[in-house]
Amino acid sequence: MIDIFTTGGTIDKVYFDANSQFEIGASQLPEMLAEANIRDGFRIHELLRKDSLDLTAEDRDSIVSAVRSCPGQRILITHGTDTMAETAAALDAVSDKTIVLFGAMQPARMRVSDAVFNLGFAWGAVQNLPSGVYIAMNGEVFEAGAVRKNREAQRFERA
What we know:
Elements: E1 2-8, E2 13-16, E3 21-24, H1 29-35, E4 42-50, H2 57-69, E5 74-78, H3 84-91, E6 98-102, H4 115-128, E7 132-137, E8 140-143, E9 147-150, E10 155-158
Parallel strand pairs: 1-4, 1-5, 5-6, 6-7
Antiparallel strand pairs: 2-3, 7-8, 9-10
């Protein structure tokens, strides 16, 4: 069983024409799982609906606490890309689980998005990696504490 925690981020953003900005909407995870043909073997836990730039130390503490208290050993976390590396580093204190964070550079609701690919890649990674904390984005796996987002290039890279 894989436990999936949602925290918001670009993956769940919705564009509202009335005010011309993106906002975090309901999680797209159920639709993404169905699109990826992942039908069972998971539990979804909604933790937050925030842009990762708005996450506080208390939010990260609640993510760590939720993961630590979860009985499952394999954890996926949807997360905004801007501070994903910081949350991964905070989760490094949890040593007995395989934890994989993933997100998207474009909202899952958009026609062209990396969201479903990143979900599928993270799904495979969480089942095959040893205990530890990782980021799985755009076909690469990075260990917590050794990764950063290159905002200009819109990709993750080793730090």
